[in-house]
Amino acid sequence: MKDKLIFIGVIGGGEVPSQVAEQAEETGREIARRGAVLVCGGLGGVMEAACKGASDEGGLTIGILPGDNRLAANPYVKIPIVTGIGHARNVAVVKSSQAIIAIDGSYGTLSEIGHALQSGIPVIGLNTWSLSIDRRIDDGIIPADSPKDAVDKAIELINNQQ
C-alpha cells in the first residue's frame, strides 16, 4: 500500500516562541520529505511554521479552519477547508489524520490530543503535554526527541496500522 497518501496532523499553539516555531518548521519539512500530507488547523504559530516547512520542501498542506473565510488561512496552506464551527474543528483535524504530532501547545492542543487518543489515533509529542491520572503516568503520548524522530515514529505507527 505504498501508493496511498499518508496524512500526518501537526497541532500546537497559535502563538509560539521562535524555538518552538523552528521545531514545527523542521517537522513540516520532514513530513514533506517523506511524501506525506500535513494536516493542521490552518492558522498561525505551530500550524504556520509547520506549513512553511512543508511548503519549502514542496509538500501538500491542508488547513482545517475554524471560521468561514478561506483567506484566514496562513499563507502556506495549499488546501484551506472552512468549517464555520470554531474550536469544534479540532475534531476534524484529528479525524483527518492518521497520526498526530503535538508540538508545545495550550488547551486547544490538549483537546486535540484527547480526541486523538480516544479515537485510537497515535499521538507523538515534541515538548508538549504529558498526561497522568490519579498521579499515575499515562503513556498515551509517545515522546519524541526531535522533529525527525517524531515523523519517523508517526510514519512507523501509520505503516503498522495498515
Quick synopsis:
By secondary structure, the protein is an alpha/beta fold. 38% of the residues lie in helices and 23% in strands. The longest helix has 16 residues, at 18-33.
Explain how this protein is built.
Helix content is 38%, strand content 23%. The protein starts with 6 loop residues before the first strand and ends with a helix. It has one domain (7-144): Rossmann fold (3-Layer(aba) Sandwich). The strands form 2 sheets. A 7-stranded parallel beta sheet has the order 4-3-2-1-5-6-9, sandwiched between helices. Strands 7-8 form a two-stranded antiparallel sheet. It has 162 residues and is an alpha/beta fold. Helix 1 packs across helix 2 and helix 3 packs across helix 4 (107-118). It is built from 5 helices and 9 strands. The protein has helices at residues 18-33, 46-56, 89-95, 107-118, 147-161, and strands at residues 7-12, 37-40, 61-65, 79-82, 99-103, 123-126, 131-133, 136-138, 141-143.
Which of globular, elongated, flat, extended, rod-shaped describes the shape?
A: globular
Q: Helix tally?
A: 5
Q: Radius of gyration, rounded? A: 14 Å
Largest sheet: 7 strands, parallel
Counted up, domains total 1
What string gives the helices and strands in order?
Answer: EHEHEEHEHEEEEH
The CATH class name reads Alpha Beta
Which strand order do you get reading across the main beta sheet? 4-3-2-1-5-6-9
β-strand amount: 15-25%
Q: Specify the helix fraction band.
A: 25-40%
**Helix vs. strand class:** alpha/beta
Query: What is the first-to-last residue Cα distance?
Result: 8 Å
